[in-house]
Amino acid sequence: MKWKVKDKEIITLVGDIASQESYDAVVNAANKDLRTGGGVAGAIHRKAGPELETATRAYAPIEVSEAVTTQAFDLPYKKVIHALGPVFGVDNPSDRLLKRTYENIFNELRRRNIVSVCVPAISTGAFGYPLREAALIALKTLDENLARLRELDRIAFVLYDQDAYELYNRILEELYGEGEET
Questions:
Q1: pLDDT, tens digit, for every residue of 29-84?
Q2: 3-state SS string over 53-69?
Q3: At the topology level of CATH, where does 2-176 sit?
Q4: Is cis: bond before 120, omega within 30 of 0?
Q5: Beta bridge partners of 180
Q6: CA–CA separation, 53 vs 121, rounded Å?
Q7: Is 167 within 8 Å of 174 (Cβ atoms)?
């Protein structure tokens, strides 16, 4: 689905976040050591090649909610924004830390003049954040930051399954009305 909001496109899709074409950057749901892991981090590192892990060494370890940017190597992107979301129920207050994670991602987008980006559902996999609560935080934080993201034209939430896709679409419809099929 697609929404036009404040001269920007917000897109939702189900797919492999490491393989989306025609976007400038991708957000990696990173671990604190910025190493290959499971889920999103594993997919991104595998596709990028070993140079990505070498490039991240200079930044590791990172703190919860921190975001850092590297080159994308063999990924179809120019940049990777590595962001460490909170582990639900361990890193507290989880809601504020997740909001700060997205704010730091948006700060990196602005700092790097990124025009288009793919973003996963941060912290909802192995970190155990309930999907609905995480999606609300992600999308409301985006809404609060849209006016400041001057260079950004397109943001795609690349989700791992149909349930996540439908949930994000329902929340976006609550925020912006009915979207368009892509």
A1: 999 999 998 899 999 999 999 999 999 999 999 999 999 999 999 999 999 999 99
A2: HHHHCCCCCCCCCCEEE
A3: Leucine Aminopeptidase, subunit E; domain 1 (3.40.220)
A4: no
A5: 2
A6: 22
A7: no
